[in-house]
Design goal:
- By secondary structure, the chain is of the alpha+beta class.
- The chain contains three helices and six strands.
- The chain has a four-stranded mixed sheet with strand order 1-4-2-3. A two-stranded antiparallel ribbon has the order 5-6.
């Protein structure tokens, strides 16, 4: 069985509405080129990552949000925000500090890094291709709406 790393934002975080991607990469001494799939709705990304990770040894699936940025300047601004947030956390080292990236609160505290075994339901089924396609369509509509300057 492979492994899955899932970014877990707060329940009320705007990040939950972002498109999500899954990066599949080698682990356990295997070597092959990693690749990214998506965008998906979060639930579909998690289900797909878990389904693949349960079926394969020597691989790791990483589920994370895809930031809706449109330019190199926005990417650089996001990286700057993350760097500043990390520096603030290191300087203050306080759980009361709330960091923001593109106006979204981000929790950079990874907490304990102990491996946690999760129970997987015996009747677990990944989403069907039709469900994933419908989710992608909803994701693309939300992404286009969020980046439409005439909608502001």
């Amino acid at each position: 069985m492979g492994g899955v790393i899932i970014y877990e934002p707060d329940e009320d975080s705007a990040v939950l509405e972002f498109p999500w991607v899954v990066t599949f990469e080698p682990s356990g001494g295997e070597e092959w080129d990693s690749f990214v799939c998506g965008p998906y709705e979060r639930a579909h990304a998690v289900a797909l990552a878990e389904a693949v990770a349960l079926a394969e040894d020597g691989m790791l699936a990483v589920v994370e949000p895809m930031m809706p940025v449109l330019s190199a300047d926005e990417v650089l601004a996001t990286i700057d925000d993350l760097r500043e947030a990390e520096e603030e956390v290191e300087e203050i080292d306080s759980p009361l500090v709330e960091t923001k990236v593109n106006g979204t609160h981000v929790d950079l505290d990874l907490g304990e890094t102990d491996l946690v075994e999760e129970e997987i339901a015996d009747d677990f089924e990944p989403p069907t291709p039709e469900e994933v396609r419908a989710g992608m369509e909803r994701t693309f509509r939300r992404l286009l709406a969020a980046t439409d300057p005439s909608a502001s």
